[in-house]
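Inverse folding, one chain.
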């Protein structure tokens, strides 16, 4: 849904040249506009469909300010990550870096007390990315199953399968699709999936404005106990942390990625406006009946709604494959491939790894088939860790010796963000497992 939403940006990790924030002249690098488009494509995804339900959990006034606050935190976190990555690349005269490699290198050049933890930091970030991606695929799987269940139950009222049974059927199909190892083979499917996504997002938007209720009919704020579900959902929808560095690495002039009018700020302003309006008007349209995904509110007896309920799951199935690809890139390339010898054993290990990830997401989805809880769990465990905890930890490490500011205000700021992270993490986990 947002997330790790899938992207065709691939980091050039084999480059041996020193990369700084000076202008890059290789032809494959992207212009300011190209990077802006990549950012918008990476951030805006099916996660936007969950925002009206987030507003339902929080109340419409808190939803507005809360969404803006989360988008601001995401922007600030991305700024910290990219800025320190650019600085450490210049300092160490190293090549293009990914997320976990940036964390490891910053630790290696940080205070002596943390230098020995550089690889622990790298492994920890890789683990969080994999766990978050796994939970994201669980949310995708539940959404696909619920959509198919709604459509086929309407078409065949005398032959109704449960959501759990649809999860099993879809998982079997995904076991086959996820064996595709080269993303280039998915390009034709990706084009079709993007068309499905566009149609699937357009119809709910049109239907949303057909009958809006007055804001006076709904609470401005609901309850503190529901805030973790709100924040988890918005973090889920806005998370693209693992994509910022690969996108920045492709920019012709990296200095234009940051700054007041940089590609990052411009894209996040657009995202903030879109997310706030979509969440608000979606909630004002459906009120207390708002479902975890707004597509589930569409009248199933109408043909266009049935088309959306089929096209969006098809699009999300490809995104599921792309998210699985991210996990395989980390698990296989960084950890497993060096431990398996022989082409037959390596192929078998690849198959087993891919099947294990699909089976695991299916098992978790069956165990917790509530879409809103899984989305909140993804946002609180995976997204918030990458957005809140990791960037402020890097910032503290870099600035620890002599750059914490007057009265160490940067340290206190990072501690406050850390406390907010702990609140989101603990409260969301407690709610999900009640």
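Residues assigned per position:
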């Amino acid at each position: 849904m947002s997330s790790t939403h899938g992207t065709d940006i691939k980091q050039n990790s084999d480059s041996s040249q020193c990369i700084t924030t000076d202008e890059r002249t290789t032809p494959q690098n992207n212009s300011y506009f190209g990077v802006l488009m990549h950012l918008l494509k990476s951030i805006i995804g099916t996660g936007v469909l969950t925002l009206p339900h987030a507003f339902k959990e929080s109340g419409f006034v808190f939803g507005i300010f809360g969404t803006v606050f989360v988008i601001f935190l995401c922007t600030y976190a991305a700024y910290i990550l990219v800025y320190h990555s650019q600085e450490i690349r210049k300092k160490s005269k190293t090549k293009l870096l990914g997320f976990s490699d940036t964390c490891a290198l910053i630790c290696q050049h940080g205070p002596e007390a943390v230098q020995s933890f550089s690889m622990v930091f790298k492994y920890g970030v890789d683990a969080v990315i994999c766990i978050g991606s796994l939970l994201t695929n669980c949310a995708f799987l539940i959404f696909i199953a619920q959509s198919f269940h709604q459509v086929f139950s309407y078409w065949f009222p005398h032959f109704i399968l449960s959501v759990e049974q649809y999860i099993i059927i879809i998982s079997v199909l995904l076991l086959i699709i996820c064996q595709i190892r080269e993303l280039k083979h998915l390009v034709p499917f990706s084009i079709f999936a993007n068309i499905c996504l566009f149609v699937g997002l357009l119809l709910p938007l049109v239907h949303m404005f057909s009958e809006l209720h007055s804001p006076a009919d709904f609470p401005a704020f609901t309850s503190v106990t529901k805030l973790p579900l709100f924040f988890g959902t918005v973090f889920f929808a806005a998370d693209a942390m693992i994509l910022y560095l690969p996108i920045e690495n492709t920019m012709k002039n990296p200095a234009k990625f940051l700054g007041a009018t940089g590609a990052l700020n411009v894209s996040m302003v657009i995202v903030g406006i879109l997310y706030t309006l979509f969440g608000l008007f979606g909630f004002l349209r459906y009120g207390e009946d708002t479902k975890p995904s707004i597509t589930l509110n569409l009248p199933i007896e109408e043909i266009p709604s049935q088309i959306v309920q089929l096209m969006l799951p098809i699009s999300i199935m490809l995104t599921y494959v792309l998210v699985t690809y991210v996990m395989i890139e980390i698990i296989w390339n960084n950890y497993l491939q060096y431990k398996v010898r022989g082409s037959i054993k390596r192929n078998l290990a690849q198959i087993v790894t891919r099947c294990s990830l699909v089976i695991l997401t299916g098992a978790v989805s069956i165990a917790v088939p509530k879409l809103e809880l899984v989305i909140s769990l993804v946002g609180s465990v995976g997204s918030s860790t990458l957005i809140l905890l990791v960037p402020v930890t890097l910032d503290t490490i870099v600035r620890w010796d002599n750059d914490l500011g007057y009265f160490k205000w940067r340290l206190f700021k990072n501690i406050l963000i850390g406390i907010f992270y702990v609140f989101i993490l603990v409260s969301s986990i407690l709610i999900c497992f009640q």
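The two ends are 25 Å apart (CA to CA). The chain is about 70% helix and 0% strand.
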